[in-house]
């Protein structure tokens, strides 16, 4: 399925990239597409896809559609899935990003009276700096702690009466558990937690909200798409509103590359009609989601995608069955007495037989049998369960690795 497309905006974008980027001009020439060929919404399908590998392997200023003199900033991805992806920004790009982040804050109910502690990375990572600009645009107070330093985080939350925490879900869980162990909740003024940068599910949401007494809001974003702030949940928590005044979104079958109907999971593909320095043409995000067919009852004019289920390059095959980490999170959310943290380990024995074991945290080890049954029903695969002590699985200040494939493939 494809969200509404403005052919005029796409033509204008293609005119800019063909005149400004030799790399993109050659890419479109190789696909046999000219700007004038985009006359109807359906013509979007004529455009070639762009992949992360292309952006990684092409020097950022060679890919850029503006002269280097117009680039005012660069940011890079964390490199979680490989080499860092570097993207350039013009002054207009920075301004647009600032406005998108401010919009995310408004949707999450943040106001100029709030005090927002930004516990995500600054520097090259496209997170802290962009978030801070949006908070300042809104008029709220910024407390730019960055990640880590849990003692400092807690001290500043108490001293400055922080009302909003902005962190990865992994770090939010780490802080929430520390608050619970020290019985500090009554000393905090937190009411909202903004989380993103990694896939997280309802079990993690419940954990953060119950321990901190906050409402959580899931944000979506990638460095290639400016950074965090591409979209956010509204107060209904039913999908993520995407700012389609800056993006065209599609959901495709990652195998056939054909559009899928609304409600059907697939891979999110994004085009950026107005991004100047590092424009994207049908960028394959690898993120798995779906498009909603109906407008949100909240009244927002912006369409919704489902919360990210995982990545098409994260899914692994075990004994012929596709496994996604989100499947574990879904099961954990429905089972009392089990924490949201988990690890999935894939092994292969000497006879070539694959096995999958999930490690979870629980006080009562007898939940293993019930969890094995539910995972088998959910995934369609026999999965071993190892129950460990609460708090024993590693917590991360950034993104948490959950799948470990020990096979030699």
Q: Which characteristics define this entry?
A:
409 residues, alpha/beta, GMP Synthetase, Chain A, domain 3, 2 domains, 29% helix, 25% strand, globular, Phenylacetate--CoA ligase, AMP-dep_synth/lig_dom, AMP-bd_C_sf
Spatial arrangement of strands, main beta sheet = 4-3-5-6-7-8-9-13
Helicity, in percent? Answer: 25-40%
User: Can you tell me the residue ranges where pLDDT is under 50 for at least 5 consecutive residues?
Assistant: none
CATH class call of the largest domain: Alpha Beta
Radius of gyration: 22 Å
Q: Helices and strands: which structural class? A: alpha/beta
- Total strands: 20
Kindly report how far apart the N and C termini lie. Answer: 34 Å
> How many distinct domains?
2
Under CATH, the topology of the largest domain is which?
Rossmann fold
Mean pLDDT: 89
Q: What name goes with the CATH superfamily of the largest domain?
A: ANL, N-terminal domain
Q: Mind summarizing the main beta sheet?
A: 8 strands, mixed
CA-based shape: globular
Question: Strand percentage, roughly?
Answer: 15-25%
From the 3D coordinates, which CATH architecture of the largest domain would you assign?
A: 3-Layer(aba) Sandwich
Total number of helices: 11
Report what the structure shows.
The chain has 409 residues and is α/β, with parallel strands linked by helices. It folds into 2 domains: 311 residues, Rossmann fold (3-Layer(aba) Sandwich); 90 residues, GMP Synthetase, Chain A, domain 3 (2-Layer Sandwich). The protein contains 11 helices and 20 strands. The chain has an 8-stranded mixed sheet with strand order 4-3-5-6-7-8-9-13, sandwiched between helices. A 4-stranded antiparallel sheet has the order 10-11-12-14, with no helix packed on it. Strands 19-18-17-20 form a 4-stranded mixed sheet. Strand 17 and strand 18 form a beta hairpin. Helix 5 packs across helix 6, helix 8 runs parallel beside helix 9 and helix 9 packs across helix 10. The model has no long low-confidence stretch (mean pLDDT 89). GO terms for molecular function: ligase activity. This is Phenylacetate--CoA ligase. Keywords: Ligase. Pfam families: AMP-binding, AMP-binding_C_2. InterPro entries: AMP-bd_C_sf, AMP-dep_Lig_C, AMP-dep_synth/lig_dom, ANL_N_sf, PA_CoA_ligase.
